[in-house]
Amino acid sequence: MIDKELLEILACPVCKEPVKLTKDGKGLKCVKCGRIYPIRDGIPIMLVEEAYYEEEDKKTSSDKA
Q1: Long-range pairs of 18-21 with CB within 8 A, sequence gap ≥ 24
Q2: What pLDDT tens digit does each residue of the chain (65 aa) get?
Q3: Are 54 and 13 in contact (CB under 8 A)?
Q4: What is the distance between the alpha carbons of residues 61 and 12, in angstroms, rounded to a whole number?
Q5: What pTM does this model have?
Q6: Dihedral of the CA atoms 54, 55, 56, 60 (nearest 10)?
Q7: In this structure, how many other beta carbons lie within 10 angstroms of the beta carbon of residue 60?
Q8: Which residues contact 12 (CB under 8 A, 6 or more apart)?
């Protein structure tokens, strides 16, 4: 779980826009560009190389089906 105070100060490293917790709580999504930064062991990984888009996540799950 991400601390609310930390969530308020975090921003997308690309757009510098705020991020919001994803519905599943596994990432932080930029409100502007839509990049999702993963959360691992309660730590947000705010690296562009680690970010992904929801479409990629959907493609991955549909490829498995």
Answers
A1: 19/44
A2: 788 899 999 999 999 999 999 999 999 999 999 999 999 999 999 999 999 998 654 444 444 44
A3: no
A4: 25
A5: 0.80
A6: 100
A7: 10
A8: 18, 19, 30, 32, 33, 35, 37, 46
Q: Which of 23, 35, 3, 55 is nearest to 11 (CA)?
A: 35
Q: Which two tokens stand for residue 42?
A: 């309660």
Q: Six-digit token pair at 49?
A: 């190389």
DSSP string, 4-34: HHHHHH-B-TTT--BEEE-TTSSEEEETTT-
Tell me the domains of the chain and their CATH numbers.
4-64 (2.20.25.10)
- The candidate with the shortest Cα–Cα distance to 24, out of 9, 6, 39, 44, is 39
43 token code pair? 């730590």
